[in-house]
Amino acid sequence: MRNAHRKITRKKAIIAAAGVALAAAAAFAIPQASAHNSRPAVPSVDQMRGMVGTAWATDPETGQTLITADSTVNSDQWASLLTARSDKVQVQRAPGQFRLFAEGGDAIFAGQGRCSLGFNVTMSNGAPGILTAGHCTAAGNQWSLTQGGRPVATVQESVFPGNGDFALLSYNNANTNAPSAVDTGNGTVQIQRAANPRVNQNVLRMGSTTGLNDGRVTGLNATVNYPEGRVTGLIQTTVCAEGGDSGGPLFTQDGTALGLTSGGAGDCTQGGVTFFQPVTEALQAFGAQIGQ
């Protein structure tokens, strides 16, 4: 989480989304190494789960699995991962280290922490709320629109690590006007609906650090071994992000909400790999609605 460092005067409110168990990590079949083969042994799923700095995602339409390793994966571990390559398994390196992008859309603040507002939603009781990344809520329970400002939202529920990375905040003023829209800096995208993404889909991401960026979806149901713990059920993309973008929205130009920024590796200079919490699961967990 990056320390808060800039004043934001945008109108929208603060964070949100909490949790229930999401889809488990994708299991993939890997051929066993021969007893007469001197190459490194093919890693098992259990070994992968314990290897910090790795992630794996699937394409349900093709059955392809994509394994990604960050810069903390050593040469022996990398050699072991390479043995998993096949027609159905790809292995790639990511620049830098997997980390959480705490801080993002419009900026929101708690203590010395900064995250990004994901999507405004209507909670199950009809009051306005916000979805954001679950790991953001470690910074505090009360969130404001400016560093040290008056709190405008309160954490209701939060999930991280484990079966997701999402949280729900409620606006302290139940009469807050909180439309489902994304401030893109040069305009606004009205959010009409939420949906699950598909591999190779073109997507947009907004964050309070790096602004508006685009890319494509490369995998679904991703499992990421962050230093803070393993998280399952995520969307993997090529969209860049940096510290402070956490919780920000992943969406399409036509106004479809897809996800909430979790973390990744790299930056918006060299590019990288990023992971997002599916927004449909967060909405279902809370009984919340979007596009109202």
TrEMBL record:
UniProt record, GO biological process: proteolysis
Disulfide bonds: C115-C136, C240-C268
Keyword Disulfide bond: yes
UniProt keyword annotations, A-Z: Disulfide bond, Hydrolase, Protease, Serine protease, Signal
Entry annotation: catalytic residues: H135, D165, S246
UniProt feature coiled coil, ranges: none
Protein name according to UniProt: Trypsin
Source organism of this protein record: Kibdelosporangium aridum
